Recover the amino acids of this structure.
């Protein structure tokens, strides 16, 4: 028996109505929220680097639209300008959309790749999931508390020849009801830096004094699987290890994501040795 379509799947107009409803609902929820959102920016970097990450802005390969990749890069540059230097004080919450704002052409955003109803299409503001995922990687390497996280497929394009980064499960954002948020439950401020240079995105998390612990992301049992529905999926288990800096002792190993992501690129590009 075929699955009954949701209202948002009936037609483009129904999708827009559903989208607007969720945006209004989130505005109301934010208005009555007791959370204290980070708003202060500082141009001077805090002295201690907690974690850092960089990745390419533009992917090139079979079936990848260079125009949409360039649009994604422009969207990320614009979003970085709104986030760079944000200070998250103890007790405050970082909200991705609270800082980036609405992704419209009027606000300077371009068309990039977005996921709508499980399909990759062109959409204004597309590609910002790349920035959210990079920020999430920083937070996972810190004692900060993730308070809102939504996943999408981490198999949007073939893995680079240089090798797979252990944590690549996608972090989904969609204005404004699918947000990425973390809270600073430590006793010292943290600062997020984000900028683009030479076709690369760079992000850093900084603070005033070094934390006593460090963190390591471990991916286990990474492989691809052809399901009975004819689709390929990437499967893996993602763990985070908490390590005491002074002794090097692993204090804990926690499963943070049991990954099953639909492959959204040409399945012929999957390495045959990784298919089970």
């Amino acid at each position: 028996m075929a699955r009954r379509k949701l209202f948002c799947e009936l037609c483009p107009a129904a999708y827009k109505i559903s989208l607007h409803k969720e945006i209004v609902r989130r505005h109301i929820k934010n208005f009555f929220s007791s959370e204290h959102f980070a708003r202060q920016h500082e141009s001077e970097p805090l002295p201690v680097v907690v974690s850092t990450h960089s990745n390419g802005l533009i992917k090139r390969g079979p079936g990848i639209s260079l125009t949409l990749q360039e649009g994604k890069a422009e969207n990320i540059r614009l979003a970085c300008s709104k986030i760079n230097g944000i200070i998250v004080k103890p007790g405050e919450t970082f909200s991705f959309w609270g800082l980036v704002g609405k992704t419209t052409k009027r606000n300077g955003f371009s068309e990039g790749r977005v996921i709508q109803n499980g399909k990759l299409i062109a959409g204004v503001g597309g590609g910002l999931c790349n920035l959210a995922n990079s920020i999430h990687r920083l937070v996972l390497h810190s004692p900060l508390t993730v308070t809102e996280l939504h996943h999408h497929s981490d198999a949007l394009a073939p893995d680079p020849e240089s090798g797979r980064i252990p944590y690549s499960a996608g972090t989904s954002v969609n204005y404004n009801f699918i947000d990425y948020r973390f809270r600073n439950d430590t006793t010292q401020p943290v600062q997020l830096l984000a900028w683009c240079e030479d076709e690369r995105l760079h992000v850093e998390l900084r603070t005033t004094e070094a934390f006593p612990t460090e963190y390591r992301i471990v991916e286990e049992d990474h492989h691809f699987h052809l399901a009975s529905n004819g689709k390929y999926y990437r499967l893996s288990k993602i763990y985070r290890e908490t390590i005491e800096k002074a002794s090097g002792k692993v204090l804990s190993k926690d499963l943070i994501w049991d990954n099953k992501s639909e492959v959204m690129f040409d399945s012929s590009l999957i390495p045959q040795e990784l298919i089970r």
In short: The radius of gyration is 19 Å. The CA atoms of residues 77 and 197 lie 9 Å apart.
